[in-house]
Specification:
It is built from eight helices and ten strands. The protein has helices at 11-27, 46-70, 85-92, 116-124, 158-173, 201-216, 231-239, 263-269, and strands at 3-6, 31-37, 76-82, 98-102, 129-132, 147-150, 177-183, 222-228, 244-248, 274-277. β7 (177-183), α6 (201-216) and β8 form a beta-alpha-beta unit. It comes from Acrocarpospora pleiomorpha.
Length: 278
């Protein structure tokens, strides 16, 4: 069991490191701090190449030392490779229980978009991935919000993976869990049509889906929520007060296997860390 975190020295990767340390301590797992460097020019300038490699070694050393100095008894290792950062993390995900990345790296320019490395890792990783948004240390709320599990319903195969991950996180952190599902008015609905949804409907719809996990984790206080609106909009709203949002990694068909139409906008718009599980 290993927690892998991508670290490049930016404030965004520092927040990812902060979350990864916390995750490793909760799971009693070793932490692997990973960094990749790339020589963008033709071979020949060995002096410049060596300088870049030494700079990369220093960045990685700094991240690993931060983790060792900020934790007590946590096993911290480091891994430096030459090549694309995303491919490095994807390869490490084959033997990791979890990969943690920052929402943006050195090259990301648009504040509301996740960076290309995070995007590619989320799409192709073999393990769950947590994307941590923002820069600097993870804010410590005096009253942490719940773990929000995005439930697709209709016997969707991702639901069990999402709920397993979410309930485990809630149990480890001593936080409540909200199992949430979005719904929209029927196409034939018009403002003059009455559509009454009783408050108990959330329990009726989502209760059977979460029953096995509530039994396995009786210590977790869990509630069920049916929220009207497009799925990305609903999950983005819920992320405003959540400690962690857990979604499935539904991917579109085809050789590129891109992240699905629900997960992608949530990754770009959510305001809390997002766990993408598979």
């Amino acid at each position: 069991m290993t927690i892998v975190v991508g670290y490049d020295g930016t404030d965004y990767s520092m927040q990812a490191l902060d979350w990864a340390m916390d995750e490793a301590e909760h799971r009693h797992a070793p932490l692997l701090v990973a960094h990749a460097w790339h020589w963008p020019y033709e071979p020949g300038d060995d002096l410049g190449r060596d300088s870049l490699r030494r700079a990369a070694e220093h960045v990685l050393w700094h991240g690993a030392e931060c983790a060792r100095n900020c934790t007590s008894g946590l096993t911290v290792d480091s891994d430096l490779r030459e090549g694309p950062a995303a491919e490095h993390l994807i390869e490490l995900s084959r033997v990791a229980d979890l990969v943690v990345v920052g929402s943006r790296g050195r090259r990301a320019l648009v504040r509301t978009m996740i960076g290309s490395v995070a995007d590619r890792v989320v799409t192709h990783a073999h393990s769950p991935v947590i994307v941590v948004r923002g820069a600097g240390s993870v804010p410590r709320r005096p009253d942490p919000g719940p773990i929000v599990a995005a439930v697709a319903g209709h016997d969707h195969p991702a639901d069990d993976h999402v709920l397993e991950f979410a309930y485990r996180e809630a149990s480890m952190r001593g936080l409540p869990l909200v199992a949430a599902q979005a719904w929209q008015y029927p196409v034939a609905w018009s403002p003059g049509t009455s559509l009454f949804l009783p408050d108990s409907l959330g329990e009726e719809v989502l209760g059977p889906i979460t029953e096995a996990w509530r039994t396995k984790y009786p210590e977790v206080e869990s509630t069920h929520l049916l929220e009207e609106g497009p799925v990305p909009d609903v999950l983005t709203r819920l992320s405003a007060t959540a400690t962690l949002l857990v979604v499935g990694a539904a991917r579109s068909p085809g050789p590129l296997g891109r992240i699905g139409s629900v997960t992608r906008p949530v990754l770009h718009r959510a305001t809390c860390p997002i766990a993408v599980v598979r």
